[in-house]
Amino acid sequence: MPGKIRKTPLMEAGRDYLALGLEGSANKFGAGIMKHPKDGAATVLSNIRHTYITPPGEGFQPRDTALHHREWALKIINDCLAKAGVSMHEIDCICFTKGPGMGAPLQSVALIARTLSLLFNKPLVGVNHCVGHIEMGREITGAQNPVVLYVSGGNTQVIAYSRQCYRIFGETLDIAVGNCLDRFARIINLSNDPSPGYNIEQEAKKGKRLVSLPYATKGMDVSLSGILSAVEAYTLDKRLHEEGAEDKDLITPQDLCFSLQETVFAMLVEITERAMAHIGSKEVLIVGGVGSNERLQQMMGIMAHERQGQVFATDERFCIDNGIMIAQAGLLSYRMGYETPLAKSTCTQRFRTDEVHVAWRN
Questions:
Q1: Which of 135, 185, 220, 345 is deepest in the core (most CB within 10 A)?
Q2: pTM of the entire structure?
Q3: Whether pLDDT at 13 is above 80
């Protein structure tokens, strides 16, 4: 993580450490308080977020999302501190999402973090969003050395750890899986509450027919834009809307949701299995917002079981973007001696997972 290094890491310091984590790389503003006790496991003291929800058929724009974060920041942070039972004076460091993500929302959160840093004289720690997901997933599930499938609205990557770096084995060549699902939800006018991906999942459970869609794995990478175009083409078929069409000819929106999920998830399972074979791992950790999808977990579980392995995943509290994951990764980094100087507390929309020095892992 970019920043300066203190001379003395704090890994062996005999006291508790507290971090405030702030996340706002997309349409959720989250704050969380993480405690690292001097003895024992990390403890989640609070984890609160608020989601910016747009009307059906509409996505969220960077400017409006940034405004949402600024409007809700004070309430969310105060609620977070109150639930944790701590004050800002007790916090050891303020961790914020440095990237990747949407530019304007990221900048809003960085501004909030800088303001708190100056007001309370607390060090800053910039955190990679993906590394936050991974470290929170590892902490919650207890996975030791898994292949990580990171699937969210803006990112799709297959990752494994080696020599203090999270190496990217494969990724999307165009759009992320979450973005693919969200855009199709807008096409068929599904609600964005609580999220378009969740509503796609519920509609897919009602689907009965698997329609043909492009299956686009390219080595260890996947391509999803062609699948989105193909499934959208089905919605233009007049049979989808004809009330008098015979059942055998009728393709329903639920069928399309089902088919989209099955095809895309099969591609993700395939490239994850290849990574498992390459590094000899029997563990898969699914992180990111799409990771809470029950069907993806089920399909991955079938593959892992056939390899005598197991799947680790978390529920929506930790899969979906949240502040506590930023606090966890940031505190790990801070205790190794890393801080982000105020002058370098900027954001980048393209902060690669493999750019981070994972100093806390051997």
A1: 135
A2: 0.93
A3: no
